[in-house]
């Protein structure tokens, strides 16, 4: 009982000391927008940036402890070049976990991404900004982070110049990706927003279908030589079998007895022939 009470106390304390981070943090042009995680008022936000050769996060001067839900970072970008941005919420000395922004549109700091899923693989097509290629040539690439839906995307990645194909993916499983520009060995700019795709299943042949096919092939393999053998070596027999049976027409035996009394004269044979003749007419 005491243990339950203590754990409830602990949960209450944890939720009090942490602040939910903002959601839907999107970059569009030079403007960063987000939605508050809670209905609570009196929450301030601080936006931080990191340029590509920087290892530390710095505050965007115009957006420190701001009560707005947006930040115009045009000025900071004009002096720093492409930046990775993140936002954290603050209230009464508490700060939330910082969350990185993403961009739904491609620009000079974010790759434009499209996806194509095939059984077992996912191909990511990236439009690299012409200005980036102009400034850095072959050193401008992109990094595709990928993982199953719900898993962290930071663990697996693959670098490429225009398209990246990720192989050996589980069929029927939903995979997600995000892409960020890579200059030399450093990621730079804002990542593309996460996109997910279900890996389609290949047209699997069912075991019963396989069995039916094998049986059909075997029967054909046996039947064809047998038929050929019969046709070649037993042609005469077949001809005999195929001949219609010799049927003597019934009426042949059905010689009507003369209704009238014939006189058994010396020319009896002659009389019978005459009757048969009449029937034919
Ligand atoms: C951001 O600020 C710049 C000046 O620093 C201004 O030219 C631009 O219109 C602003 N953008 C937005 C979306 O308010
Ligand atoms: C938000 O920031 C302003 C200063 O810009 C400050 O006066 C205010 O106390 C802050 N509010 C909270 C809840 O921290």
CA radius of gyration is 45 Å
The stretches of 5 or more residues where confidence is low (pLDDT under 50) are 10-15, 272-281
Helix content: 25-40%
Ligand identities: 2-acetamido-2-deoxy-beta-D-glucopyranose
The largest β sheet comes out as:
5 strands, mixed
Order of helices and strands: HEEEEEHEEEEEEHEEEEEEEHHHH
Structural class: alpha+beta
Which architecture of the largest domain does the CATH hierarchy give at level 2?
Answer: Sandwich
CATH topology of the largest domain: Immunoglobulin-like
Give the total of beta strands: 18
Mean pLDDT: 81
Strand order of the largest sheet: 5-2-1-9-17
Describe this structure in words.
With about 280 residues, this protein is an alpha+beta fold. The protein folds into 3 domains: about 20-105, Immunoglobulin-like, CATH 2.60.40; about 110-205, Immunoglobulin-like; about 205-235. The protein has helices at about 1-15, 75-80, 130-135, 205-235, 235-240, 250-255, 270-280; strands at about 25-30, 30-35, 45-50, 60, 70, 85-90, 95, 100, 100-105, 110-120, 120-125, 140-150, 155-160, 165, 175-185, 185-190, 190, 195-200. The protein is elongated. β3 and β4 (about 60) form a beta hairpin. The strands form 4 sheets. A 5-stranded mixed β-sheet has the order 5-2-1-9-17, with no helix packed on it. Strands 3, 4, 6, 7 and 8 form a 5-stranded antiparallel β-sheet that branches. One 2-acetamido-2-deoxy-beta-D-glucopyranose binds near residues 30, 31, 72, 74 and 75. One 2-acetamido-2-deoxy-beta-D-glucopyranose binds near residues 30, 72, 74 and 75.
């Amino acid at each position: 009982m005491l243990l339950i009470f203590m754990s409830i106390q602990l949960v209450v304390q944890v939720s009090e000391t942490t602040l939910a981070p903002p959601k839907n943090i999107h970059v569009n042009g030079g403007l960063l927008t987000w939605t508050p995680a809670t209905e609570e008022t009196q929450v301030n936000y601080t936006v931080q940036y990191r340029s590509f050769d920087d290892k530390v996060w710095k505050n965007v001067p115009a957006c420190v402890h701001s009560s707005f839900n947006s930040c115009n970072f045009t000025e900071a970008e004009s002096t720093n070049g492409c930046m990775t941005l993140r936002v954290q919420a603050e209230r009464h000395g508490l700060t939330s976990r910082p969350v990185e922004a993403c961009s739904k549109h491609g620009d000079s700091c974010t790759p434009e991404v499209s996806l194509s899923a095939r059984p077992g693989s996912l191909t990511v097509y990236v439009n690299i900004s012409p200005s980036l290629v102009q400034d850095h040539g072959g050193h401008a690439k992109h990094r595709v982070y990928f993982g199953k839906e719900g898993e962290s995307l930071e663990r697996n990645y693959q670098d490429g110049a225009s398209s990246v194909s990720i192989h050996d993916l589980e069929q029927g499983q939903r995979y997600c990706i995000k892409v960020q520009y890579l200059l030399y060995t450093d990621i730079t700019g804002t990542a593309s927003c996460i996109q997910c795709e279900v890996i389609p299943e290949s047209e699997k042949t069912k075991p019963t279908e396989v069995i039916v096919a094998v049986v059909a092939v075997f029967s054909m393999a046996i039947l064809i030589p047998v038929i050929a053998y019969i046709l070649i070596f037993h042609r005469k027999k077949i001809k005999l079998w195929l001949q219609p049976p010799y049927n003597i027409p019934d009426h042949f035996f059905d010689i009507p007895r003369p209704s009238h009394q014939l006189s058994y004269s010396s020319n009896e044979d002659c009389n019978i022939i005459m009757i048969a003749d009449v029937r034919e007419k």
